[in-house]
């Protein structure tokens, strides 16, 4: 029975190691890191190329409209100047041709630890194509033109918060910046595309106003989509010989199906084609997400109402992935106007912000199959961080709280292990006495266990209890953008990265060895050798893990050592008292 307990503990450790290796490899291949981003916007390819074709959309960037576009529409000359917009959170570039966002930098997030360069979310250059597109397609939609997308007129080519207006909503005052773009047709239809930015907020409202001054009804559809190639995820972190990261690909959700993944390779085979009111589509990467959330439609003086959008995905060419939405067909009678909008989000995966945008969008912070435990751990970390102001100390306090919660269960197990250590000499005597008579030895050993109140399998319980917590915390550290580049103290400047000096893994190995010395030693020589090697194996293994995870293990082991020592002393005194009487 004791041998089975040993094997169970070794098995639990190996299972933990195996699951963590799987976590490393999940959704990632062997790819190289993206080169350093540039400071200026460079558009080296025409992101508006391949206009929609109502007969064949297999190779087009634009979605297919419900009605064919007229063939005689002409497009205005293409402007060579990009529109720059800078807020407190963004620096982005919009092309007047079609009004697409072709580059977006996150000013609150560094490209890498210690870098003065902002993290580049969207871009279109010789390294990567990742852009946000929107427009009007259909019978009269300018983006359905056979000769190209519309070239909007703009008041100026640069906007900052100095151009914003102060707006008060729900008792809160904030600066709101609007960037209008105008397109006029020869028959009297005026289309105004507007980007609206709010100070302190990542969501961008993208809206169209169609003023139909012609003699004919105007018909079209609003679309929004994200186009990305197959390039690697610049948000993942390189950790020595391992590539640590999470899911890179498409995602979508509806009020009925909150969160669904769709890998780039499956954009055609498992093509998305779902109608929903209140849905969303996104491209997810490590720490960051870009998403379109369909908004509302207002005809003339009627109040805006949410519209039912069609969520879609497709591949364009050999390496371009497109996921987006289209609105229902819209008819604007002559002499009236229409307004339609959607929300575009491109930034960090902050759960508190994403959950208010659309149902299920916050689940792009993917904690895997242990998400219930991971969410509780993150909630605890977030709570402690509010008054500690440091994520490292928050991890330490969280570990202490978890150990206190598990103390009653682990105490019973450690007491049983301490008793096994005390009765180890008696077991050795029995083994020598009964020699090769294994059946008699097993009977006497079980009788001893029963007499002393010892459960040989109890040693597995603490490890089995820690496994899901350990794995869940791994995903919290790897998926929570709040801990990206978060320092602790001294040489630990990034808790989500490995210890650059390997000091924490060595300390962890020392605590694991000390803990092992408090456990009853295996009687079998081979098992004893394996157990002596475990601290060394796990020390090497943890060299490449996030420092925050190693810190958790150190604190957990340290508290366990104190708990085991205290219980061992209590059992020893109790044994001596019984022997004295």
From TrEMBL:
Residues 33-42, 51-63 have a biased composition (Polar residues). Residues 83-378 form the Membrane insertase YidC N-terminal domain. Residues 391-568 form the Membrane insertase YidC/Oxa/ALB C-terminal domain. One of its GO terms (molecular function) is membrane insertase activity. Keywords: Cell membrane, Chaperone, Membrane, Protein transport, Transmembrane, Transmembrane helix, Transport. CDD domains: 5TM_YidC_Alb3 (cd20070), EcYidC-like_peri (cd19961). Residues 33-73 are annotated as: Disordered. The keyword Chaperone applies. It is found in: Cell inner membrane; Cell membrane. Belongs to the OXA1/ALB3/YidC family. Type 1 subfamily. This is Membrane protein insertase YidC. The chain crosses the membrane at residues 7-24, 391-411, 454-477, 497-518, 530-555. It is a multi-pass membrane protein. NCBIfam families: PRK01318.1-3 (NF002352), yidC_nterm (TIGR03593), yidC_oxa1_cterm (TIGR03592). One of its GO terms (biological process) is protein transport. It comes from Acinetobacter brisouii CIP 110357. InterPro entries: Membr_insert_YidC, Membr_insert_YidC_N, YidC/ALB3/OXA1/COX18, YidC/Oxa/ALB_C, YidC_ALB_C, YidC_periplasmic_sf. Required for the insertion and/or proper folding and/or complex formation of integral membrane proteins into the membrane. Involved in integration of membrane proteins that insert both dependently and independently of the Sec translocase complex, as well as at least some lipoproteins. Aids folding of multispanning membrane proteins. GO terms for cellular component: plasma membrane. Interacts with the Sec translocase complex via SecD. Specifically interacts with transmembrane segments of nascent integral membrane proteins during membrane integration.
